[in-house]
Design goal:
2 domains
Length: about 270
């Protein structure tokens, strides 16, 4: 499988809000389904299917299938199940069951069929396999729903409970956490890496250009060295001028003494 094909498919699956082509069908058409290095791509496709069902408002028992498939994929990846994953499955199972509690009595048969299909078979298989989706909360729902078959008052109380909002909230929270865990797609990550590298190169080149344009951009240590050199030269010049001046004064004094001696000799004669 070509890397670029995988990256483009992953980008499409993650970015497309409501794809016309289901992600699983896309992977099948591109023959990615049997590739061992496509585990993240498969997980992304399942997450996108769940997200699409939320957008279309078609969450139901098919969503339970997707959550179960996702658990198997995460186990292959040696990843732990999030608590939001477990809660989403539990409340979706309960919500799917409550849809069939519209009759006033549990004896009408619709509710009984839902219990058999969702809890006895589906949840029963999860129990036997030791699935982490089987939580204490899920088992409590199973117990209450089974009791509702024989307890009309409990049946009515559960029947009047609107848990769809709670189920959708848990499912939405789970998707949010799972997408955040996987972060950006490989294509986006590669593009960002190259952009940052190019930005760093441009920054270095810009600094070099600025230094060439500014003739006064002299190193501070060089500037101090030049200042010290000028000061030393001035000091030497000042000292030299002082010595020459003293010598000249001495010469003048000597000439003056000779002239005075001559004057004294003339007066003495």
């Amino acid at each position: 499988m070509k890397v670029i094909d995988k990256w483009v498919a992953e980008f499409f699956i993650r970015r497309q809000q409501n794809p016309k082509v289901p992600p699983i069908n896309l992977l099948s058409a591109l023959k990615f389904e049997d590739s061992p290095d496509c585990l993240n791509l498969k997980i992304s496709s399942v997450l996108r299917d769940i997200s699409s069902s939320l957008i279309r408002g078609t969450v139901g028992e098919g969503t339970l299938d997707l959550l179960e498939i996702l658990e198997k994929l995460l186990l292959q990846q040696h990843s732990l199940l999030m608590e939001s994953h477990k809660s989403a499955y539990c409340w979706m199972a309960a919500e799917c069951t409550l849809r069939f509690m519209w009759p006033l009595s549990a004896s009408d048969g619709v509710f009984t069929d839902a219990l058999e299909r969702i809890w006895t078979k589906r949840v029963g298989i999860l129990k036997k396999s030791g699935s982490d989706l089987v939580t204490d909360e899920l088992l409590k729902w199973e117990t209450d729903l089974e009791k509702a078959l024989e307890d009309p008052e409990l049946y009515q109380r559960i029947r009047e409970t609107n848990i769809r909002y709670t189920a959708i909230s848990f499912l939405t929270q789970f998707l949010k956490e799972q997408w955040e865990l996987y972060g950006s797609s490989s294509l986006e990550s590669e593009a960002q890496t190259r952009f940052l590298k190019r930005k760093a190169v441009n920054h270095v080149e810009g600094d070099c250009v600025d230094n060439r344009k500014d003739p006064n951009a002299v190193d501070e240590s060089t500037r101090h060295l030049e200042d010290d050199t000028i000061d030393n030269v001035n000091e030497r010049r000042g000292t030299g001028e002082g010595e020459d001046g003293n010598e000249n004064n001495k010469d003048v004094e000597g000439v003056g003494c000779l002239e005075n001696d001559k004057v004294i000799e003339q007066h003495a004669a």
